[in-house]
Amino acid sequence: MSGFNAHVLVCDVVRDDGIHCGNKGGIEVKKQLIKTLADRGLNSDVKVTSVGCTSQHKPCATDQCSMIVYSSNNEGTWYRLNSDDIDLFVEEHLVNGNKVEHLVNEEIKVNLKS
Question: Each residue of 60-72: pLDDT tens digit?
Answer without folding.
Answer: 777 777 888 887 6
